[in-house]
AI-2E family transporter (Dubosiella muris), 386 residues
Amino acid sequence: MRSEKINWKLLVVVTLLVVFVLNLSHVIAFVQMCWGAISSLVFGAMLAFVINLIMRPLEEQLGRSKSKWIQKGKRSISLLVSIVIVLAVLAGLVWLVVPSLIDAGEVMAKVLPKYYEQAEEFFTHLFKNNPEIVASIESLNLNWNEITDKMMSFLGSGVSGVLGNAVNVVGTVVSSIVNAIIIIIFAIYVLLDKQRFVNLYHRATKLWFKPETTARITEALNIIYSSFSSFICGQCLEALILGSTCALGMAILRLPYPLMIGTLVGVINIIPMIGAYIGGAIGMFMVFTVNPWLSVVFLIYLCILQQFESNVIYPRVVGRSVGLPGIYVMITVVVGGSLAGVAGMFLGIPIMASAYKIARIYFREAEQRKQAEIAREKANVQPKSE
């Protein structure tokens, strides 16, 4: 009777699997439709999680106040202050980075023709004994006025194309704005009513699970929350260390734009392991607009700094903050990046840290049970009487 029941279960599983494979395209379309419906809410929950890292300690501090007015509105006050802090940080980063990037673009547009002429003269003089190479170099002569005209014509055609599809453009812009508003509003609602969700969780677990199971689920969720919050804080700390080190080294080497490039490298370094390279490429472009040879110095310095950061700072700072050994951090970044790109690299570390901590608890409890069983078996063994 028991085997027949198991066979029925196996038959149902195999049938569902076959239906899933045969209708894979429809399943993918259904998943995409569901994701489109809930993506704004998911991003809102993620935004709420990040803001809560600032809001939670503020709310705890306000909770110690003896003022009844503050006690009553501590959650709203802490949320408002947290949002102001986030907006202030974003505004400060934009103020540090964007104007310098605009200036660098203008300088690059002015100096590129001069650098091209200097390079052409250098290679012409270098290969003056080889007329074929010199002829090839001279044939590459660029008309910068013509290039500028073509770029302006391309931009003009792009604008006209955009204007020709004004309805689609307006629809896309409006949709993006609406999604952003939904994300922000949902995040605010989640933060204001977060205690409601906590109470709902406790009621549901008490209704559906045993106390031992509820305790295990709560412990696992606390581990996941701790891993993600520690990872985000560790990423910010590591980005601050790298950005400060980059700016300080550039100031010592007398390279241009030290504060702006250091800030840019630190911010983009939020992308694990490879973020500094992306910021470094932009920084090299910035230095190149001032002096091409200094950009080579900057590249060498950043490569040395990035090697030190990837192999020493990042595994120790981020790995220690999430409680994950450095070797596991590097493995997770490599595997996660191969599977899901930047998102896999960013989310893989806290997920791996959570699995690592839960596995350690499981193995520790399993070892304790095993030792207890061995002790009981030894206690049950009676010595033979002579």
Notes: Residues 209-374 form one domain. Confidence is low (pLDDT under 50) at residues 1-5, 154-166.
